Amino acid sequence: MTTQSPILSLRGIQKSYGPIRVLHGVDLDIYPGEVVALLGENGAGKSTLSNIISGTVQPSAGEMTWLGAAYAPANPRAAMDDGVGMIHQELKLLPKLSIAENVFVGRYPMKAGRVDRRAMGERARSGLKRLGLEISPDRLVEGLSTGKQQLIEIARALTLNARLLILDEPTAALGGEETQLLFQQIERLKADGVGIIYISHRLEEIRQIADRVVVMRDGAKVQEFDSGDVPIRTIVEAMVGRSLERMFPALPTPREGVTLEVRDLTSPTKAFRNISFSVRKGEVFGIAGLMGAGRTELVRAITGADPISAGEILLYGKAVTPRSPIDAIRNGMVLVPEDRKLQGVVLNHSIAENIGYANLGAIARNGWVSSRRLQQFADECIRKFGVKGRGHQNAGELSGGNQQKVVLAKWLARKPQVVVLDEPTRGIDVGARSSIYDLIMDLARQGVAVIVVSSDLEEVLGVSNRIMVMAQGRQTGILDREDANDVSVMELATI
CA 121, CA 138: separation in Å to the nearest integer? Predict the structure, then answer.
């Protein structure tokens, strides 16, 4: 590494938005054929730094060099022309176009004034083969697995002869087999001399894939490790700036009395059928299962977002089966949805507005909402729930963890009796996870019935008093905390 020259060098990179500085003089070198894991909590500055490198954002100060020459891309296209590609967490492929058309969209090879489809197909096929994808470039993207779509995004960058790839949460939506396929392709790219910046919240991956680890906190580079073989605890403590005695807080003991009861609930699409369970006051009830088990469909039905064909829902022994989300909300049941960007927040509206939408009854007077009353209400929620942002900021400007806190804040301000959390920490870093776990335990201590759906087995085991396991739409068992472990849960999830 020391005998090579870096392909990319950053010196003193700063970025400010008005009076708020989000990057504080970051230095970074990336060498050919290495994977640098860029880690940090949401809001640490990883995305801003990546966007500066890829030309999406302009730095306020500092210098960059690329292949030994001054580098200051005016936009992503300029960065891609130089050989720098960024693969975003949210895939940007067009499902109704072919793989080849997606690879070359916006820059189709032309011949005699027309798209040269033969050349496009051959070049796309070459890029796919380089990644080990034996698939026709003429096939539509629609219907391809997420893992293959991720590789097609990478193939698009490789057709530009990318020398540096920035992978932002590339495995967030991948299964185990697809993740290993991606890692194999990364090894091929390294062998070809491609440098890679790898951003991930899945710290267990870092040992497998990273050659170096760079940790950011509060807009600054705070630590660098010369190997990916670093204990997760050490990385986490560097990320959050404090010692972590434990990941999950102590669980309070549930109270006597059942808050929520579900009896023989069945979906008209058979996504779930004959589901029955109860949740006590102050209990955290986990729901586990593999993808496609029907967990999300179940909790959406419980909170009125999806229909049911049979069964009933009782609150304190009274039938309240909701026919719409409004019914559920009026009965004190709220859902923090799986997809916060599409269903949880309005990204181009302010934090204050997002919080206000769920609490108009508390802030409106005679049908009118004053901006002063809205701001006061939102400021109190922002303080109470630890949102790192100001009421006037758009929700889309926040990190994933803080967006999730806004969703929690707007619903918890209503003081619900039942809170349903679907994948509450997906795409959220360790530090933000810890604060969300604390919120869950606070709710339980207050006597709220909490349901947590999670694909993270460690998480559902760590936060739950009891766990219901689902498989293929069926309820396969309910485990008490002392009986629940990764083996017992997976046995029930694969029945």
Answer: 7
